[in-house]
Write a structure and sequence with these properties.
RHGA/B-epi-like_pectate_lyase; 15-stranded parallel sheet; Glycosyl hydrolase family 28-related protein; 61 strands; hydrolase activity; mainly beta
């Protein structure tokens, strides 16, 4: 084309400028749409060219001028144009790539990207008329489940301008990541959007080892460019692990097989997506303490065990950043993956919120960790209103390099399945637990509130002798450096295999935990593991405490056969200062727990019971020290008293014809006849000074407290009368 022809075409195109409203209309029309507007359009021959044209009246008396024509062509034909067409507008008719292209006469530099910019053989730039949505199919993505669409998807992302949406219509898009260099690189200020389960991004069969499917610059830890203001919504990701057995999941970046990875980021949102199946080290990896603002919301994750190397550390969502939210997601694992789905959520740094998530069949539901460095060490962790189903551990509190502080764990429902994991790991299972055992100076846990949670273990009959009993229980707060400022309040703990609540019981360090409140908790059937040692089968277990109040808790045992031993196990001889235990309600189906394994330095105030008797002294019934017995019999003014306070526990009445044998320092006596005995009776054995309280009766075997201070064989057994003190003279 010579200079005169170029000028003439430019003049024709000048009359062909279409308002944006018309461009939007053209972009939405296919060939059928063009035909449907026949009132203003007609088809015309392009002469010797392979392109056909649609002609319309421009309203200026020039119905057959070039300014009034639109070419109908293909991408290939448009690229091949080498002469001046009689139009500056083309409709491309390629299947899945339909659209309107306009010659940009001012652009001589843009590269051909195959989707929104086409450069013809003459060097002209034809640009697709678009609004704010770019379809990956425009760039050659097939979505047929066969073709490798990696490059086409990348081309679409590269072509998108800030604020635009990269759209995945229904289809299965095969991608082939490799190592740490081949993956789909995401950019700032974009939205990736699909049609939910119908828009699938699937890893190619036999992809081998790779770092990630999508992500920002892979140079780790804040070295690459930042990706910010990115949203990924309504897409399904298929890890296709079953057809990639050759891949090895390890800690190296090249073999982690992540789905999304970011090392330098701000304001990333992943929402309403499906990750099924996922078997990588992480599905989502946000890994930079200098980065911030992540939202992972309303997604579904299905973990499936690999058939190759199955034993590897995996966490579905990993965040090491600040100011992030993990909300309303569903994490599940297949039946075959029990014991292999390591973690659902792992959170390093703060502030953060994990709420409204449903977590099913994971070894660890949520791991809440302090920061690795000072960049995101702000405190303020909230884990609230999550539901855990059939998990081995509900919530871990884990120490990294910085202190863990200002933590709220509230209103979570944690349903444990300890039975399914007996052979796994170190044999520990807990609803809420501190797991760090490394004593590093300066690493502390401060201001921790555990409130209104439900922790429910499955009932078990046979128990486990391999489970680590000190690492098992409802709420376990054992940390070598101690904890400071803890509230444990309003929680319900049911069927804990060992302790219901444990504070510093298992730790071997000598650090003191202080400023702790344990109030208004409901602990039912703690210590149900029949093979556990008695010392850990307690409702509340603690040592090395200062400034602690344990009050208004309800402790109950509903088993037909006694399993729990202690309401409170507070090791005699350990450090206790300003510790008060008061106003707790303790009941058991057959009687009471052992209540006496409590250090003498603790201000132990058992609950006061009010009882009634018409005679003095009482002739029947069990009476506990501290009880108040009101006089309901006849009153003689000036002589009768209002009631009696029980000074020493005892049982009123007479027991005859029963003998007992018990060995020194044991708690089970053998009696000749137990028919007249019941749990709660206080008895004496001839020749011994002990006052024994009956805790459990099985045939002629009677469990008592305290342990015997001597040995008796075939000695007479009798009720031990209570010691009473009168109060309130009447008249």
């Amino acid at each position: 084309m010579n200079e005169q022809e170029t000028q003439e075409m430019t003049e024709r195109n000048r009359g062909m400028q279409v308002e944006i409203s018309r461009r939007k209309l053209l972009a939405s029309l296919g060939i059928a749409g063009l035909a449907a507007t026949a009132g203003g359009w007609s088809l015309a021959s392009a002469g010797s060219n392979t392109v056909t044209y649609a002609t319309y009246s421009n309203g200026e008396g020039d119905p057959e001028g070039c300014a009034a024509q639109i070419g109908i062509t293909t991408i290939a034909e448009l690229k091949a144009l080498s002469s001046g067409p009689c139009t500056s507008v083309f409709f491309v008719k390629d299947s899945l790539r339909e659209g309107v292209f306009v010659w940009d006469t001012a652009d001589t530099a843009s590269a051909d990207n195959g989707g929104t910019v086409v450069v013809d053989a003459f060097g002209r730039r034809w640009k697709r008329v678009v609004d704010d949505v770019l379809k990956v199919q425009w760039f050659g993505a097939k979505g047929d489940g066969l073709a490798d669409d990696t490059d086409a998807i990348q081309a679409c992302i590269n072509a998108a301008s800030p604020g635009q949406t990269v759209y995945f219509p229904k289809g299965t898009y095969i991608v082939l990541p490799s190592g740490i260099t081949r993956y789909i690189q995401l950019r700032s200020n974009l939205t990736l959007l699909g049609e939910g389960a119908s828009s699938v991004i699937k890893v190619k069969d036999n992809a081998g080892n790779y770092g990630t499917v999508m992500g920002g610059p892979i140079e780790p830890y804040f070295c690459g460019g930042m990706v910010q203001n990115l949203t990924i919504r309504s897409l399904k990701f298929d890890h296709n692990f079953a057809n990639n057995n050759g891949a090895v999941i390890q800690t190296a970046n090249t073999t982690r097989s992540h789905i999304l990875t970011f090392f330098n980021f701000k304001n990333i949102t992943v929402e309403s997506c499906i990750f099924d199946p996922v078997s990588s080290r992480n599905a989502l990896n946000f890994n930079s303490s200098k980065s911030s603002q992540v939202t992972v919301r309303n997604n579904y994750f299905q973990f499936a065990k690999r058939t190759g190397d199955v034993y590897y550390d995996n966490t579905v969502v990993y965040c090491e950043c600040s100011d992030y939210r993990i909300q309303d997601n569903h994490f599940s694992a297949t039946d075959a993956s029990v014991g292999f789905a390591t973690g659902a959520i792992e959170l390093h740094g703060s502030p953060c919120v994990a709420s409204g998530n449903l977590i099913h069949r994971y070894i660890a539901g949520i791991q809440l960790c302090s920061a690795w460095d000072s960049y995101n060490d702000f405190g303020n962790f909230v884990v609230a209103n999550n539901t855990f189903n059939d998990v081995y551990n509900g919530i871990y509190l884990h120490m990294s390099n910085m202190p863990l502080k200002n933590v709220l764990i509230d209103s979570n429902v944690i349903a444990m399945d300890q039975l399914a994991y007996y052979s796994f790991s170190d044999g520990t299972t807990a609803g809420i637990r501190i797991i760090d055992v490394i004593q590093t100076p300066g690493r502390t846990i401060e201001k921790l509130s555990i409130t209104n949670n439900q922790i429910l273990f499955k009932p078990e009959t046979t128990g486990s002798s391999t489970r680590r009993v000190y690492g098992t229980g409802g709420i376990l707060l054992d940390y070598p450096n101690g904890i400071d400022g803890v509230i444990v309040e309003g929680n319900q703990i049911v069927n804990s295999p060992a302790a219901g609540i444990s504070i510093q019981k298992s730790s071997a360090a000598t650090t003191i935990s202080k400023n702790i409140s344990i109030r208004n908790n409901h602990i039912i059937n703690s210590g149900q593991n029949v093979l556990a040692t008695s010392i850990v089968k307690a409702a509340i277990m603690a040592k090395r405490l200062e400034n602690v109040v344990i009050e208004n808790n309800i402790i109950r045992d509903d088993w037909d056969t006694m399993r729990g031993y202690y309401a409170f196990s507070m090791e005699p001889g350990a450090y206790f200062k300003d510790v008060t235990v008061r106003n707790n309600q303790i009941t058991a189906k057959q009687g009471g727990y052992r209540l006496d394994y409590v250090d003498s330095k603790i201000d132990y105030l058992p609950p006061i019971a009010f009882k009634f008797s018409a005679v003095y002294p009482p002739v029947s019934g069990d009476y506990t020290a501290g009880d108040m017995v009101w006089n309901t019999g006849a009153v003689t003014p000036g002589t009768s008293v209002a009631g009696y306070k029980v000074i020493e526990s005892g049982t009123a009445g007479t027991l005859t014809g029963v003998t007992a044998s018990i060995a020194f320092n044991t708690s089970v006596m053998t009696v000749s006849d137990s028919s007249s005995l019941k749990v709660g009776n206080v008895v004496s054995v001839a020749g011994l000074t002990d006052a024994f309280t009956i805790l459990h009766i099985t045939g002629t075997a009677v469990t008592v407290k305290p342990r015997a201070g001597g040995t008796a064989t075939g000695a007479a057994l009798s009720f031990r009368a209570p010691a009473l003190r009168e109060f309130g003279l009447i008249g």
